[in-house]
Every structure is written in C-alpha cells, then in structure tokens.
Amino acid sequence: MDLMSLPIAEVTDEGVTDAGKAIALGVGAGLGSIGAGIGVGFIFGKEIESVARQPEMKDELQSIRWLGFALTEAVAFYTFIFGLIAFFL
After folding, report:
1. How does pLDDT run along the chain (89 residues), one tens digit per residue?
2. How far apart are the C-alpha atoms of 68 and 50, rounded to whole Å?
3. Euclidean distance between CA atoms 17 and 35, whole angstroms
4. Of the candidates 27, 20, 16, 18, which has an alpha carbon nearest to the alpha carbon of residue 82?
5. Is 50 exposed, middle or buried (0-12, 13-18, 19+ CB in 10 A)?
6. What is the 3-state composition of the chain as percent helix, strand, coil, each rounded to the nearest 5?
7. What is the dihedral angle through the alpha carbons of 54, 42, 70, 25, rounded to the nearest 10 degrees?
8. What is the largest CA-CA distance in the chain?
C-alpha cells in the first residue's frame, strides 16, 4: 500500500475554529452540569436534614425545595443554551 496515494486532510482555519467551538461547548455544558448537580445534591441533602430536625414543617420545606431545584436546573439549561448559541454563531 502506497501511503503517498492516500488523500491528506488539510487543516483549515474554519476547521480549527469549528473544533474550538465544539470543545468550548462541551466544556461549558459540562461545567454547568457539574455545578447544577452539586447544587441539587446540596438542596436535597439540606432538606432531608431539615425534615429530620422538624418533621412538622415538611410541607413548607417541600415547596421551598422544589423552587430551589427548579432554579438550580434552570442554570444548567442556561449554560447549555448559551453554549449552543456560541457554537452556532
């Protein structure tokens, strides 16, 4: 097999730019997801501790927990959407 007859992929500025955008999207979405995961774990852990200390406040704590969960997950979605916007623009 003659290696000189194989097509050689050329490195272009556009290819390097697209690769950089893809890497940035992956890193940005990954870090945003890690932060949201830590936040959600913290919220649920503290809610369990709170219910263990004051079981009579379970209903009030549950509504606050779901609000915190929704806001934390919204941050993860925002990081992903901003990454997509940066990738395609």
Report:
1. 566 666 666 777 888 888 888 888 888 888 888 988 898 999 999 999 999 999 999 999 888 889 988 988 898 888 888 888 888 87
2. 15
3. 27
4. 27
5. middle
6. 90, 0, 10
7. 180
8. 79
